[in-house]
């Protein structure tokens, strides 16, 4: 029986950098379990001859030629950055003290 | 930090058998990034080569670079791989600011090329087959600068600055199967494999594969198992080893370190390690807090790549002669030993010598100048041989001037010095510096007469049959002409004037 445990939801939340309170974990674990259960019913009707779909369109080999197109200016690229320094995106400390 | 205890290399190999896995990342030399049309030119202003796609802005859509896919297929074919008939890209999810999208577009369980091999030649000529697990397409990350730490390292930094010009540049990751049976030659095999792969990539024309510029990087996975056992030991992964010499040193160091830990009853921790160029050691990176969980899933924004068999065969037909085969052919043509050829390969001189020969020089002279004077200069200046400001055509011209007697070796060296100093092509340097051999027989005759007169005792010895003594008189003439005489012609003149047969 597919489903998702509260521990798995906590693990996913940590990977996604989401801080969830205990009651939120309970709440979402229940909801996600229902959703996964509903989606799982698709596999019950799909037989071996129905492959998993990752792309809805029957397209392959969509490629572009290796030709340079104009980029954004550094000002445009940085316009949405919360912080910048030396024409670079400034990000908070990556590793804490060890 | 305490110095890690090592056991001697010989003792380590007596007790343990090394198994390696090598992961090499090659940055392709395409004009644009893998999934957008931003330029890949090096040295551009920070964040001047980005767009909504490589910055991961909402609503942007990637489209794969046709040349990137073609390069991947060529690399796969050259590595004797099977080319997938159909494969997809996948998202490798992780939070780290070097990728603004919060995922790297890569390939997961459907690499474009798989199950191949590369035969590498060791210094004594032995061929060792390295089996290839896979080669897949992905993209490079942005470049971080860490601010506030003592040495620019991430540890202790207050904050970091990101330049995303490199984010999205096409990468091909080539992964070997476990390399077993190399024994004490494991470090040499690792180095020879990366060297051969670099030559192959260059011959395919898909990348310049300059390791010192990070266009080719190697991760060395290594484990030991007790001699006579089958089961692999726990491995360490030494990241970003960026020169051929370092690949060999890193493998050697890890063999000695693992052996020290295991033989004292300890256990190897599976971890990433950093290599230090200065002393050839490795130190622990972060021990991963939990198993990697990248939550790979098929990239919905890119359609599958399905290389047609016709296209694959067309590309196969364009593959150049394999570098190893070419080197063996050249070695025979040049009439040199395997060891000499290896030195030429290590010096990065194969193509330079070939081009010099193509420009008219004989192979012995071409080798002599590139592996002698020019290699010495490159070493002094700390640059690659190919980066010296002299062309194979210019070297060929100098060898021509030597062989027609216009220059002797000493003057040729001065001519090279002039060309390297930017004084112009060889003929201009010879002209400006007045380097021509004194071929005016009259002037030379006078100098010879003077030398004979000034060294009567030696002249008598020569008349008496001691032809070898002529060397002293040749020296005197060369000194008088400040080295600008053809020594062989001077010797002839001396013997002629003294009435002796050479």
From TrEMBL, chain A:
<feature type="region of interest" description="Disordered">
    <location>
        <begin position="47"/>
        <end position="98"/>
    </location>
</feature>
<keyword id="KW-0067">ATP-binding</keyword>
<comment type="function">
    <text>Allows the formation of correctly charged Asn-tRNA(Asn) or Gln-tRNA(Gln) through the transamidation of misacylated Asp-tRNA(Asn) or Glu-tRNA(Gln) in organisms which lack either or both of asparaginyl-tRNA or glutaminyl-tRNA synthetases. The reaction takes place in the presence of glutamine and ATP through an activated phospho-Asp-tRNA(Asn) or phospho-Glu-tRNA(Gln).</text>
</comment>
<dbReference type="InterPro" id="IPR003837">
    <property type="entry name" value="GatC"/>
</dbReference>
<dbReference type="GO" id="GO:0070681">
    <property type="term" value="P:glutaminyl-tRNAGln biosynthesis via transamidation"/>
</dbReference>
<dbReference type="GO" id="GO:0006412">
    <property type="term" value="P:translation"/>
</dbReference>
<dbReference type="InterPro" id="IPR036113">
    <property type="entry name" value="Asp/Glu-ADT_sf_sub_c"/>
</dbReference>
<keyword id="KW-0808">Transferase</keyword>
<keyword id="KW-0436">Ligase</keyword>
<keyword id="KW-0648">Protein biosynthesis</keyword>
<dbReference type="GO" id="GO:0050566">
    <property type="term" value="F:asparaginyl-tRNA synthase (glutamine-hydrolyzing) activity"/>
</dbReference>
<dbReference type="GO" id="GO:0005524">
    <property type="term" value="F:ATP binding"/>
</dbReference>
<dbReference type="GO" id="GO:0016740">
    <property type="term" value="F:transferase activity"/>
</dbReference>
<protein>
    <recommendedName>
        <fullName>Aspartyl/glutamyl-tRNA(Asn/Gln) amidotransferase subunit C</fullName>
        <ecNumber>6.3.5.-</ecNumber>
    </recommendedName>
</protein>
<comment type="similarity">
    <text>Belongs to the GatC family.</text>
</comment>
<dbReference type="Pfam" id="PF02686">
    <property type="entry name" value="GatC"/>
</dbReference>
<dbReference type="GO" id="GO:0006450">
    <property type="term" value="P:regulation of translational fidelity"/>
</dbReference>
<keyword id="KW-0547">Nucleotide-binding</keyword>
<comment type="subunit">
    <text>Heterotrimer of A, B and C subunits.</text>
</comment>
<dbReference type="GO" id="GO:0050567">
    <property type="term" value="F:glutaminyl-tRNA synthase (glutamine-hydrolyzing) activity"/>
</dbReference>
Automatic annotation (TrEMBL), chain B:
<comment type="similarity">
    <text>Belongs to the GatB/GatE family. GatB subfamily.</text>
</comment>
<dbReference type="GO" id="GO:0050567">
    <property type="term" value="F:glutaminyl-tRNA synthase (glutamine-hydrolyzing) activity"/>
</dbReference>
<dbReference type="InterPro" id="IPR014746">
    <property type="entry name" value="Gln_synth/guanido_kin_cat_dom"/>
</dbReference>
<dbReference type="InterPro" id="IPR004413">
    <property type="entry name" value="GatB"/>
</dbReference>
<dbReference type="InterPro" id="IPR006075">
    <property type="entry name" value="Asn/Gln-tRNA_Trfase_suB/E_cat"/>
</dbReference>
<dbReference type="Pfam" id="PF02637">
    <property type="entry name" value="GatB_Yqey"/>
</dbReference>
<dbReference type="GO" id="GO:0005524">
    <property type="term" value="F:ATP binding"/>
</dbReference>
<dbReference type="GO" id="GO:0070681">
    <property type="term" value="P:glutaminyl-tRNAGln biosynthesis via transamidation"/>
</dbReference>
<keyword id="KW-0648">Protein biosynthesis</keyword>
<comment type="subunit">
    <text>Heterotrimer of A, B and C subunits.</text>
</comment>
<dbReference type="Pfam" id="PF02934">
    <property type="entry name" value="GatB_N"/>
</dbReference>
<dbReference type="GO" id="GO:0006412">
    <property type="term" value="P:translation"/>
</dbReference>
<dbReference type="InterPro" id="IPR017959">
    <property type="entry name" value="Asn/Gln-tRNA_amidoTrfase_suB/E"/>
</dbReference>
<keyword id="KW-0067">ATP-binding</keyword>
<dbReference type="InterPro" id="IPR018027">
    <property type="entry name" value="Asn/Gln_amidotransferase"/>
</dbReference>
<dbReference type="GO" id="GO:0050566">
    <property type="term" value="F:asparaginyl-tRNA synthase (glutamine-hydrolyzing) activity"/>
</dbReference>
<dbReference type="InterPro" id="IPR003789">
    <property type="entry name" value="Asn/Gln_tRNA_amidoTrase-B-like"/>
</dbReference>
<dbReference type="InterPro" id="IPR023168">
    <property type="entry name" value="GatB_Yqey_C_2"/>
</dbReference>
<comment type="function">
    <text>Allows the formation of correctly charged Asn-tRNA(Asn) or Gln-tRNA(Gln) through the transamidation of misacylated Asp-tRNA(Asn) or Glu-tRNA(Gln) in organisms which lack either or both of asparaginyl-tRNA or glutaminyl-tRNA synthetases. The reaction takes place in the presence of glutamine and ATP through an activated phospho-Asp-tRNA(Asn) or phospho-Glu-tRNA(Gln).</text>
</comment>
<dbReference type="InterPro" id="IPR017958">
    <property type="entry name" value="Gln-tRNA_amidoTrfase_suB_CS"/>
</dbReference>
<protein>
    <recommendedName>
        <fullName>Aspartyl/glutamyl-tRNA(Asn/Gln) amidotransferase subunit B</fullName>
        <ecNumber>6.3.5.-</ecNumber>
    </recommendedName>
</protein>
<keyword id="KW-0436">Ligase</keyword>
